[in-house]
């Protein structure tokens, strides 16, 4: 747990310095686009929180040999492999000029590097016909590269509201750490705890009132490391069902797959941005109803409360996965139940048939905190 604590402190302090120095780097770090189709924040905020998390992770990884016997080589290799996709995200955060295609290629490059340097390859999914194909090395590598790049981008896709992606990430890393501890995988457990601490230090600056955002760089880094830990956990521990990896990340994964499906269904590019993600619908059709757009405090508060709805939804997959990590049938059922619940919730909100209990939660606990009201000028 010491690496978790050190990661938290380092992340908190580095991000504190980034926030306090925003007047110097604000011309390149502030997200000033407040009206984009996927934008839901009220004031310009730096979107380079990922650099603070990356610095914290690197510090802990380099210092960990002082108190642990975990392999420094493997930890550094994970970070080295993450560099292409992380760098593409950070550059996009600062310049807004890195295309989605280039970032996807960087994600694929990072995933391929991990396959070659870490031997992090998916060799089973606990479906016999598929597993027989995965015994062919090129097919296994291709499958792993696509899966890793997919999860890397999935974390970025759900990064739209205060604390949403970061808290979901902490819940998933916490689950990975627990399962790794259960099977005595010290490396995966160590990296998972480092990520919990480093992302935790960021959350204090992002929720409920945001002073900084993850940015593409932060989301990509978190998603990539998450994917690598899941691949290594399943590959090195036969007792861990491959369905655990599917169930624990089902929320960001299914959000991505469903978004691609509905875009293609509407004749749009699969990668085109839109404002029809589930988290956006929750904000606009449950929480934004009756919202005073000129009340800055109220807008920020409702933004943060949106994340809480999705945290609860993500637990539908995370909790059973954590408890039944070695039971494929239960995990497969969990994955199916989540997908059904997601589609049902999406459909009822789209059709303006939101259940009364969801609206009741809004009216009972989602009012803005009392205090001096701020208005947007």
Question: Topology, pairings included?
Answer:
Blueprint: H1 2-20, H2 22-29, E1 30-31, E2 45-46, H3 49-63, H4 72-95, H5 100-117, H6 128-134, H7 137-157, H8 164-182, H9 186-203, H10 215-236, H11 242-248, H12 250-265, H13 278-287, H14 296-323, H15 328-350, H16 356-365
Antiparallel strand pairs: 1-2
| Overall pLDDT level | 87
Structural class: mainly alpha
| Total DSSP E strands | 2
Rg computed from alpha carbons, rounded to a whole number of angstroms: 20 Å
Major β-sheet profile: 2 strands, antiparallel
Distance between the termini: 46 Å
How much of the sequence is in beta strands?
under 5%
Total domain modules: 1
Output the number of helix runs.
16
Q: From N to C, what is the helix and strand string?
A: HHEEHHHHHHHHHHHHHH
Cofactor: Mg(2+)
Membrane topology: Multi-pass membrane protein
Transmembrane segments: 6-24, 45-63, 75-92, 104-122, 134-154, 161-181, 187-207, 219-236, 242-261, 308-325, 331-352
Pfam family, one: Glycos_transf_4
């Amino acid at each position: 747990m010491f690496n978790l604590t050190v990661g938290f402190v380092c992340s908190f302090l580095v991000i504190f310095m980034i926030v306090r120095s925003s007047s110097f780097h604000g011309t390149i770090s502030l997200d000033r686009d407040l009206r984009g189709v996927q934008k839901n924040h009220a004031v310009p905020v730096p979107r380079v929180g990922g650099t603070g998390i990356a610095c914290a992770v690197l510090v802990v990884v380099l210092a960990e040999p002082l108190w642990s016997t975990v392999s420094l080589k493997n930890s550094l290799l994970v970070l080295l492999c993450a560099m292409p996709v992380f760098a593409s995200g950070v550059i996009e955060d600062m310049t807004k000029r890195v295309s989605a295609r280039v970032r996807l290629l960087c994600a694929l490059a990072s995933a391929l590097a991990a396959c070659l340097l870490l031997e992090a390859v998916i060799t089973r999914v606990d479906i016999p016909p598929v597993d027989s194909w995965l015994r062919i090395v090129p097919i296994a590598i291709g499958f792993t590269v696509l899966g890793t790049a997919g999860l890397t981008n999935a974390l970025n896709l759900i990064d739209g509201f205060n604390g949403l992606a970061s808290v979901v990430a902490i819940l998933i890393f916490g689950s990975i750490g627990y399962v790794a501890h259960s099977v005595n995988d010290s490396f995966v457990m160590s990296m998972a705890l480092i990520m919990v601490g480093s992302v935790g230090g960021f959350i204090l600056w992002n929720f409920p009132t945001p002073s900084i955002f993850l940015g593409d760089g932060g989301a990509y880094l978190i998603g990539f490391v998450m994917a690598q830990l899941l691949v290594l956990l399943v590959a090195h521990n036969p007792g861990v069902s491959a369905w655990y990896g599917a169930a624990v990340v089902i929320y960001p994964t299914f959000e991505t797959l469903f978004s691609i499906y509905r875009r293609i269904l509407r004749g749009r590019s699969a990668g085109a941005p839109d404002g029809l993600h589930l988290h956006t619908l929750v904000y606009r059709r449950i929480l934004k109803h009756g919202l005073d757009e000129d009340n800055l405090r109220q807008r920020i508060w409702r933004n943060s409360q949106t994340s809480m709805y999705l945290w609860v939804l993500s637990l539908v997959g995370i909790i059973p996965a954590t408890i039944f990590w070695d039971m494929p049938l239960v995990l497969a059922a969990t994955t199916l139940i989540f997908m059904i619940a997601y589609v049902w919730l999406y459909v009822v909100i789209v059709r303006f048939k939101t259940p009364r209990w969801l609206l009741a939660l809004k009216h009972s606990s989602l009012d803005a905190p009392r205090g001096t009201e701020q208005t947007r000028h």
